[in-house]
Amino acid sequence: MERDELSDWLRLQLTPGVGDLSARRLLAAFGLPGEVFGQPEHRLREHLTPAQTRAVQQRPDGFDAQLARTWQWLQGSEADGAVRRIVTWDDPTYPSLLLQTEDPPPMLYVLGPAAFDTRDLGRSIAIVGSRNPTPQGTDNARAFGRALVEAGIPVISGLALGVDGAAHLGALEGAGDRAMLATVAVVGTGLDRVYPARHRALAHRISAQGLIVSEFPLGTPPLHQNFPKRNRIIAGMSRGTLVVEAALLSGSLITARLAIEQGREVFAIPGSIHSPQSRGCHALIRQGAKLVETVHDVQEELPMTALPDDTPELPFAGTAHDPDAASLLAALGHDPVGLDALCARTGFSAADLQGKLLELELDGHVARLPGGLFQRVARA
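C-alpha cells predicted for DNA processing protein (380 residues):
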C-alpha cells in the first residue's frame, strides 16, 4: 500500500460521524476513497447528512500524526518475521465471508506471516466462551481448538482470558511445527498493544503461526464498547461459531446471535444444569443451535476436511487404575459436588475422601472449585 492510498483510506476511517455503512455508500457511489474526497458538496449530500458532509470535507483532528504513526508501523517488522499489513475492501485478500456481512470494516490491520492469507479463513470455525470458565470448559476449548486445526480448520477467537485463550493454545498445539494458518485472534485494540497484558506471550506465538486482526486504528486502548463490536468480525470471518461455556448475559451470546443473523452455523457444548456457565449454551440449544459433544458433530454440519482417525473426541472419559479412585470418579459424575454429598454417595470417610480427591486432582482428573466443591474433568 502506497502512502497516498493509505492516507485516503485512513482519512475515511477516521472521519467523525461517518461509520462503516456510510463509507460503503460513498465508495459504492464514487469508487475509491480518493475519489470521495474530491467530490463537490452537493454530490456528497446525496449520500450523507449535512453534518457528515462537513466532516468529510475536513481533515480529522490529529490526522497527520496518525498517518505518520500508521505508515511507520507498516514499514516495520516483528522480531519473529511477522509482517504488518492493512487489508481494505478493494483488496482481493479481504476475507470473503466477512465481506458478505452487513457491516464489514473498511480496513483491517493484520499481523502475521506473509505466507498466511486471510482468504484461507473460508473454512474456519470461531470458538468463544466465558472469561471465567470451569476447568472442564477450559479443557474443552483447548481440545476442540487442537482437533479442529489437526483437521486443517483454522480457529478464530478473541484473545480474551478464559475460553478464547484456551482455544488459541489448542489450535497452536494442533499445528505443531507445521507451517499453517492455525488460529486468528480478532482483538478490540490497536495492533500496537496487547490486551490483556498477560496474553503477550500468546499473542507473540499467534503472530508466528497465525494472524492477529483488528479494525481499530493504532493506539486504540481497550475500550469496553469495542469488544462487542469486534465480535461481528469473529462471527463474520467464520463458517460457524462454537460456544463452549457462557452465562446468560455473556458477550459470547452476542457473537452467537451475530452468527445467526449472518446465516452461519452455531454450535454449543452442553454442561451441568447447575452451572451458571452452562445456561447460555443451553439457551442457544433451545433456540436451535446444534448440541456438540465431539469435533465430528461440527464436521457433520460443515463438511470441509476429513478429520484424522485419531482425533480426540469430547467428553474424554477420565480413568484411574485404583478401584477406589474409579468408584469415586463414578460417584462424582460431571456436576460440581460437595464433600458431604460424596461421603453419602461413596461411604468413604471425609479424611479418606480428602486424600483420594487430592490424588485425582494432582492427576488432572478432578478440579477443586470455589465453595468447597469438586468436579470431574474429562481428559484426553
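DSSP finds 17 helices and twelve strands in the chain.
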